[in-house]
Amino acid sequence: MNRNRWLYPLSILLLLSSVSLEAMARIKLTTLPVRERVAIQLDHPQIALVEEERIVPLVKGINQVDFSWANTRIDPDTLVLRILAAPVEPALNAQVLSVSYPPNENALIWSVAANVSGTARVRISYVLGGLSKNFHYRAVAGRDEATLELAQYLQVHNNANEAYETAGFWAGVGQRFDKPLGLNETKEVQLSRFASVPIRKTYTCDPVTSGYLDRAQDKLNVPMHYVIRNAGGALGQEPLPTGKARIFQDDGQGGTAFLGEDRGEFTP
């Protein structure tokens, strides 16, 4: 994370006021500590759910937590601050009282009451646009074309104008994984690999659907397909989302030969 926090498109400020001062006065600004934990859920096709946790200092009485975002695609109606059930200091009892929106600002202010001064772990969640994903697959058929190895990949594209030094991602399927994600960065990870998946090779002759290679000579276009047989759960227990699949075949010499590509439909 860039140490110059004033340049962040997304910033959080903590405003502290004591009960002896004017109520809710915005008089002292201190930046919150760095994110302790970030979780990004990408199971929705167009938006992401972000949860981040921080350890924040609170004073006895009323505190103001000022959350601001500039050029970041946060939906302000989805912002929620929670004081986690197990605070860092057991004697501290904190509660969110209200939220307000300063005029003409991309910001909101939570009013938080604390019975004593101390630190608490808070979770801030929001819906964020600009984070998108897509799946793609790489299949390598064996030399005998009886089985293939299928690898599933996930690409995450960050156009949200916010960087995450470390975040835990979940795409709705597959394992959760931890990765950094920079501004305007695309990150690719392998989610799953399935070995020795049974297949059946087929040819389809259908002039209406596939057309002709040469109509004058009556040469048909006859596409070849590998039909996957998932008997015994060779493809695992989770669905396979829609994505482009590139098909290769073992060439028997330690390499592979590209056969073609297709778009795989959602497989429950």
Describe the structure.
The protein is an all-beta fold and 268 residues long. It folds into two domains: 5-128, no CATH class; 131-264, no CATH class. Helix content is 1%, strand content 54%. The chain has one helix spanning 207-210; strands at residues 10-16, 29-31, 37-41, 48-58, 61-69, 80-83, 94-100, 107-114, 118-128, 131-141, 147-158, 164-170, 177-181, 186-203, 212-214, 219-220, 224-228, 243-250, 256-264. The strands form four sheets. The protein has a six-stranded mixed beta sheet, with no helix packed on it. Strands 17-14-11-10-18-19 form a six-stranded mixed beta sheet, with no helix packed on it. A five-stranded antiparallel beta sheet has the order 2-1-5-8-7, with no helix packed on it. A hairpin with a 4-residue loop joins β15 (212-214) and β16. The longest helix has 4 residues, at 207-210.
- In what order do the strands lie side by side in the largest sheet? 6-9-4-3-12-13
Total count of strands? 19
Low-confidence stretches: 1-9, 16-31
Our estimate of the beta-strand percent is over 45%
Number of helices: 1
Q: How large is the radius of gyration?
A: 27 Å
Categorize the overall geometry. Answer: elongated
Question: What is the CA-CA span between the terminal residues?
Answer: 39 Å
Overall SS class: mainly beta
Largest sheet: 6 strands, mixed
Q: Give the tally of structural domains.
A: 2
What sequence of helices (H) and strands (E) makes up the elements?
A: EEEEEEEEEEEEEEHEEEEE
Average pLDDT number: 85
Range of helix content: under 10%
